[in-house]
């Protein structure tokens, strides 16, 4: 797309126009233009507005969070005594009050991630493969699959809590018509709640992943498939030896973003199950937000968020490692450019 | 010879026929999935047009009988504890301003990272991209304190400004700028234009599709953001729609007519944007993956 735009929108006059309005002094400096130099301050002037935001709301909080986690930081109390690693120690001490709720929530996040990520990697790939060839109505179908994603987590959760209502919900009604049990309490019992949370999430984000896969599939040169066919490869062999290797960079990207999205699940559980039954579907993010921003135990919540982050970083690094090892040279070249 | 061409022709006809029947199963499967995907959204709209009793009737029906605007009338009425109209305005303002901030700051920052040579460039870029992998959760607690220090708690500014530091935006715009042919900018430089003039007069006009895509994605992201508004906004009149939906749900647990009307109000602008600007949104998402 980018190159097409570049070619299309380049009337020759366009480039010259700015120079007409430039003062003479600027023109003299233009001699240096060919060497691609500019004032030392110029790039930083461009960067300033963004770096101001980035520094204040990304870098500063990332550092401040560590500071908070070393204190018994209650937002509502004037004294926030330094406690060193106590907040972290408590998270790893089975006797402490935070141990059970925190690891319970980590477990919930783990369950959700393990159940949802494979589905969100495989089902959208299958859909994308079915859509990879042109046919009438393809763009329309693609739009429909993507539509739930634009609705946002609040809308889809409120909607599905209604559809999954055990008495009057559409889902149980249709299950009953099919002769299946029609009284499943989708949002108040496990394992049904996990099925509901995972199913709704797949419905919500399938289109997002499918669209990324689809773009990746279209980037695989058709000659590779032709060559494979000439060599006598059937559809399955073509998939294994052309599609999968061709999709490798995309696969690692989708795996990482899907893992992170699933591990950060919050809204579905907050609105559909309220973390219940009991605390069973209360995810780590839910626990952290509630500990820090409802009960204002910010030191403990910050410590929890770093423990969760270490887990996520380790998993991301592992995924990178898996996908990187197979083609070390090609990836290195891409990284340099 | 003619026998041979006949065989070839027959074979290719058979192949075409097979392909056509493959196409039909493909369309049937994909069509069935599409129905499963769109029907919940349709049912949401249908229910929002039902009366209170009709919304919880068994069996559930796909046609409101009678078609009623009661639910909308009651949630949009002024002076309630759940001012949906106010939430709508809040969400609009927040998402529009946030998208504007993102587009301006991200494109400005991306340009030198794509086109200029300077000390510290790689460091800045690597730091920005690295934060894409940082789970946003570690920022929530400290950002709450920062926002509280700035006096922005319980105010829309808290929804507009902090999330405008979009690392994705910088990454996305940089990729786009790198892909533009450099000759035009060089020509403008030889003509004596300074970097800022080149950026605003040459580069930005070429980047319109990318800017539109980024603006759309930022708008959607801000419009749908949930966790942050839920905890940072507490008065009913300052909430955004997603946070408000949560309030509406706890106030009307089984008034599904009201909840679906609220959900429809929260969906109309994003669905409208999606229907009309679908290409930009989908291409933006898919491009982020290809280049990632």
Structural class label of chain B = mainly alpha
Query: What is the CATH architecture term of the largest domain in chain B?
Result: Orthogonal Bundle
User: Which descriptor suits the 3D outline of chain A?
Assistant: globular
Name the overall outline of chain B: flat
What would CATH call the homologous superfamily of the largest domain in chain A? Answer: MetI-like
CATH third-tier fold name of the largest domain in chain A: MetI-like fold
Look at the structure and name the CATH superfamily of the largest domain in chain B.
MetI-like
Number of helices of chain A: 15
Major sheet details of chain A: none
Summarize model confidence as the mean pLDDT of chain A: 84
Q: What CATH architecture of the largest domain in chain A do you see?
A: Orthogonal Bundle
Number of domains of chain A: 2
* Percent of sequence in beta strands of chain A: under 5%
**Unreliable segments of 5+ consecutive residues of chain B:** none
N-end to C-end Cα span of chain A: 19 Å
Helix fraction of chain A? over 70%
Summarize the structure in short.
The complex is a heterodimer of chains A (337) and B (292). Chain A is an all-alpha fold. Chain A has helices at residues 2-8, 12-20, 24-29, 41-69, 86-91, 99-130, 138-163, 170-177, 192-218, 222-230, 235-263, 267-273, 284-293, 298-326, 328-336.
